[in-house]
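Give me the fold.
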Amino acid sequence: MNSDAAVADADGTDEYTFDDLSVVMGTYNEEAAIESVLSDIDRVTEGRAEVVCVDGSSDRTPEIARDHGARVIRQEPQGYGVAVREAVLAADRPVVVTTDCDDTYPMEQLPEFLDWVNRGYDVVSGDRLYWGADAMPDLNRRGNQAFAVLASLLMGERVHDTTTGMRAYRRNVIEDIAWTENTGLSAELLIRPLMRGYDVREVPIEYDERAGETKLDPLKGGLAIAKSIVKVCLEERRQD
């Protein structure tokens, strides 16, 4: 992972703007939060960003998303990673930002994420734990800290928030890597680019209390994430 120094723009292209931005998410029964998330994206990007939702909901989530101009791709519920993988690959624009649909991530920082991409970074990863993540349940916070330690040890490189849902990617990174994980996709989306030498920047973000009920069993989900971290790190080491 690179230091605070800006990375030169290797391809020499003009700076990306909100017209070059896709914001993508998997959505599942989030009618309590989705309108706020999409309104924030629309306000911050002046309505210029593409929004893609891969949705398996049985409530009004897809209807609300369409009303706000999002492109909704319907999918049978198959888990977090299946939906998000479809969403990132469906994006049409050169910069892809992942987020969650539960109103926990700060869309106000989209300009900052885009700025770091324009400085030359391939991946910009939101670090929820930097400010303490007080809104996060204690078990989840400790688990996320442990995931970061585990991944850091296996990679030989320090990371601080392995499982954040808010990241920006140059589209070529998304397209150049075969993504395999489901529950552990959030960790995989950081680990594989880092271990393949892409320029990655972690950026502190504020993390808010979620709107609506969580659908993840912290113990079962945590074990699946830990297994994915080990699996992905070992696979990447074998390719070296």
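The chain has one domain: 18-239.
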